[in-house]
Design goal:
Number of helices of chain A: 4
Strand content of chain A: 15-25%
Largest sheet of chain A: 4 strands, parallel
Structural class of chain A: alpha/beta
Oligomer: homodimer
Order of helices and strands of chain A: EHEHEHEH
Largest interface: A-B, 48 and 48 residues
Helix content of chain A: 40-55%
Radius of gyration of chain A: 15 Å
């Protein structure tokens, strides 16, 4: 199945808040063969629903959703699973997987520790 | 001047949301000689004001505040600078510095790209 990745950020009506996510999406496009696109949970477009529809129309059937969050709160434990249930009903041929938030990935914690260490010892 | 680091997270009334930050604080304590403590902007304690008071009372005069955020929105551009102004008036002998959010640090972006790459190619 053709595979694509959706990077799910919180979203903001402030374009300056969104800018680093758009930069990240741009940088990842240059590095990956697999399509990777940004979606926002609220306050800005494109939404998760918009991105799933786009990728499905492009023929992708395996869609992984990676939350760009430090920790899982109500959004990731309740709102997003409910959105995914609705999307699975709408697209029964798509395999939609919600991954753990990046903040819980060891590589992320290591990077943070490195930043803190370099700053603490400056 | 004795130096300490405050890791500033958004905060949540949900203890499960806070758990990864408390784990991070614990891990960093074992790795750093400089004190590093977590503070929350809202919805949970300890607040930034609580941490500044504690560290000041312990004799620390150079306090760096590292926001555990992906991007700077209203909180980091308006609310936190206003809190810091009030704290600087209250503690004129302390040097309080607000650092860029960790999400804008190159090491962080690299770690994220690595996570995404390993997942996209799985």
């Amino acid at each position: 199945m053709s595979h694509a990745l959706i990077l799910l950020a919180h979203g903001s009506s402030d374009a300056r808040w969104r800018a680093p996510f758009e930069t990240l999406e741009h940088d990842l496009r240059a590095r990956l063969e697999t399509p990777a696109v940004i979606a926002y949970m609220e306050l800005s477009e494109p939404s998760l629903e918009t991105r799933v529809a786009e990728l499905y129309d492009q023929g992708h059937r395996r869609l992984d959703i990676l939350p760009l969050f430090f920790a899982a709160g109500r959004h990731l434990r309740q709102d997003v699973p409910a959105q995914l249930e609705a999307l699975r009903t709408q697209y029964p041929q798509a395999a939609l997987t919600l991954l753990d938030p990046v903040g819980q990935h060891p590589a992320f914690v290591e990077a943070l520790a490195g930043i803190v260490t370099s700053r603490a010892e400056a």
